Amino acid sequence: MTATPDRLLRRLEWQVVRRLDGRLQGAYRTAFRGAGVDFADLREYEPSDDVRHIDWNVTARLDEPYVRQYTEDRELTAWLVLDRSASMRLGAGKDAFGTELAVCLGRLFARGGNRVGAILYDNGFQRVVPARTGRTHILRLAHELIREPATDGRTTDLAGMLRLAATTARRRGLVFVLSDFIGDIDWEPALSQLGQRHEVVVLRLVHPLELDLPDLGLILVEDAETGEQLLVDTNDPLFRQRLSDEVAAREEALTAAMRRAGVTHHRVATDQDLVQTLVDLVRFSHRRRA
């Protein structure tokens, strides 16, 4: 990516952020309560509530579990956790799309006076941008995002990325995880742990060709993570059926793992319009909150 951070931010502000004005109909609504310190009310306990919020005196008196609610902090801390692994960078354009999506999210939250931080992860190489607010801070974030990431040739350690996010984001907040989640599904416990403290929104970036490979004849495909190459005939009906079955099984396994981890999961294709993607995110948060 050759654009400077300032040009990238100004282009996205003009092409995306300005187009969002009047379409979002309110800010992104978080699902959690009780982030403040001022007591507001009591209500009956629900299975999804944090047991630490149970008011034991009221519970003993009424013989029904009740939880304490607090006035929610107005300031929100949002973290952008970005997978910078080889599968995100090579050929499919997911890294470029994820960069623009992250900058737009950062600008939208910072414009509302919220703090935004970022974690850029590529196995042994990590960069953490501390949470700050303001346009100048988003310029710094854009600068970090357009830097060429390092690589060590290993497959993506997604569990390590999520554990780093959990130890970095100390204050309860909103965490966006931008990744293609290509690799072994060994990250579910780390994602579940991250979701116990924060509201986690997974934005799984996919290229359309990863879901439906067209008939291109005889082609050489390469594993972006390991470099392994394989010659395949995309005209072979048996190969296409096997590939379609494996894609469907992987999609089902990923969706089930996200559901078990208790996080919000969106599959975002790299050919989607950024404006519509962000509008859909906000509308979904409103429906869930309602």
UniProtKB/TrEMBL annotation:
<feature type="domain" description="DUF58">
    <location>
        <begin position="41"/>
        <end position="251"/>
    </location>
</feature>
<dbReference type="Pfam" id="PF01882">
    <property type="entry name" value="DUF58"/>
</dbReference>
<dbReference type="InterPro" id="IPR036465">
    <property type="entry name" value="vWFA_dom_sf"/>
</dbReference>
<dbReference type="InterPro" id="IPR002881">
    <property type="entry name" value="DUF58"/>
</dbReference>
<protein>
    <submittedName>
        <fullName>DUF58 domain-containing protein</fullName>
    </submittedName>
</protein>
